[in-house]
């Protein structure tokens, strides 16, 4: 009996130690997006985003996105994207390509997106920089509450390439509301729960964000 009690005590001590070394951070994000809808299914999008971490008390950095998408048919689209990030004095260049499938049933829209990205970080005096490659698979569903209000959820593992093998670093789980308050003008309010995995002391990010989206349709 004493041995069992000792094992249980060691287990609780181990869990408590892990919890103390793991961190939970509340972050906030604010962004503005502009989407240009062109002919024949082409779309160009850009976004500027700022992030705050350390329980939203510290300005972490800003990001500028540029993306080009092409609708291939009724269900499939493909795109390429670039992101420039300025984070705490360091610059990041991220390139990615993706293919996405969507299927609409009644008021539901189901989606599956596969993304491959390569991110390069540069430092002062280091023009070559270092590159990291990720594979991301996002599964989502959106429900049209009204013509102007949507609710959506998604889950997406970020798998880091390590010695030729992709290992999951963290999961991005997202839920959000999107409201079109004027024609081609909408606002998206979202929450992200992002826990680390495959780490001895996994951290967790709780992210609250708002994105103002403006669209332009060409004739």
From TrEMBL:
<keyword id="KW-0732">Signal</keyword>
<dbReference type="InterPro" id="IPR023614">
    <property type="entry name" value="Porin_dom_sf"/>
</dbReference>
<dbReference type="Pfam" id="PF10677">
    <property type="entry name" value="DUF2490"/>
</dbReference>
<dbReference type="InterPro" id="IPR019619">
    <property type="entry name" value="DUF2490"/>
</dbReference>
<feature type="signal peptide">
    <location>
        <begin position="1"/>
        <end position="19"/>
    </location>
</feature>
<protein>
    <recommendedName>
        <fullName>DUF2490 domain-containing protein</fullName>
    </recommendedName>
</protein>
């Amino acid at each position: 009996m004493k041995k069992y009690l000792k094992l249980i005590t060691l287990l609780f001590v181990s869990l408590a130690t892990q919890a103390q070394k793991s961190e939970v951070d509340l972050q906030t994000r604010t962004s503005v997006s502009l989407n240009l809808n062109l002919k024949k299914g082409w779309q160009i999008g850009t976004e500027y985003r700022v992030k705050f971490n350390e329980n939203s008390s510290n300005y972490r950095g800003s990001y500028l996105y540029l993306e080009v998408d092409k609708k291939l048919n009724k269900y499939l689209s493909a795109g390429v994207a670039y992101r420039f990030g300025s984070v705490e004095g360091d610059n990041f260049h991220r390139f990615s390509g993706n293919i996405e499938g969507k299927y609409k049933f009644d008021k539901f829209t189901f989606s599956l997106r596969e993304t491959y990205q390569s991110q390069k970080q540069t430092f002062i005096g280091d023009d070559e920089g270092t590159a990291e490659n990720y594979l991301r698979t996002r599964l989502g569903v959106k429900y049209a509450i009204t013509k102007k209000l949507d609710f959506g959820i998604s889950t997406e593992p970020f798998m880091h390439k390590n010695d030729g093998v992709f290992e999951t670093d963290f999961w991005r789980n997202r839920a959000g509301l999107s409201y079109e308050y004027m024609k081609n003008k909408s606002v998206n309010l979202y929450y992200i729960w992002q826990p680390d995995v495959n780490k001895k002391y996994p951290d967790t990010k709780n992210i609250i964000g708002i994105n103002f989206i403006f669209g332009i349709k060409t004739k």
